Amino acid sequence: MRTSLLGRPVADVDTMPPTGEQMRDRYGQPEKLTRAEVARILRTQNRRDEVHPYNCAGFRYPTLEGAYAFADLNRANHGHFVYGPYETTGGIVNIVDFRPSLHADHPDWEATDPALPDDWTPEVNRG
């Protein structure tokens, strides 16, 4: 690894992970899924009892290669857990689970109980 003038390690630009913009240029823009679609896919994959759709986001990708590449980027750069890729009738999808990174960034944060209904949100269900 190279070092700066102060002797600190400097990342080699050639070995840095690609940015989101570079990923979109290479693989296309993923399409964000609705929460209902995320819930349906989680059920189809027998994962709905593990995670509430409120704590996830789903994305549809133009190619399987792109889905794998974005999953790797989400894991490496953000610490997200990724379910998938799954081949569905609607295309190739990943479900990105934000719980590990939210908990790491906000230790007091609590995940949404998976037993709550799919359409539950804290904004609507306060009290």
Structural write-up:
The chain is an alpha+beta fold. The protein is 31% helix and 21% strand. The chain is built from four helices and six strands. The strands form two sheets. Strands 3-4-6-5 form a four-stranded antiparallel sheet. A two-stranded antiparallel ribbon has the order 1-2. α1 runs antiparallel to α3 (64-78). The longest helix is centred in the middle third of the chain and has 15 residues, at 64-78.
Secondary structure: elements and pairs:
Blueprint: E1 2-3, E2 9-10, H1 20-27, E3 31-32, H2 35-44, E4 56-61, H3 64-78, E5 81-88, E6 91-97, H4 99-105
Antiparallel strand pairs: 1-2, 3-4, 4-6, 5-6
Question: Can you summarize this structure?
Answer:
With 127 residues, this protein is an alpha+beta fold. It has helices spanning 20-27, 35-44, 64-78, 99-105; strands at 2-3, 9-10, 31-32, 56-61, 81-88, 91-97. The strands form 2 sheets. It has a 4-stranded antiparallel beta sheet.
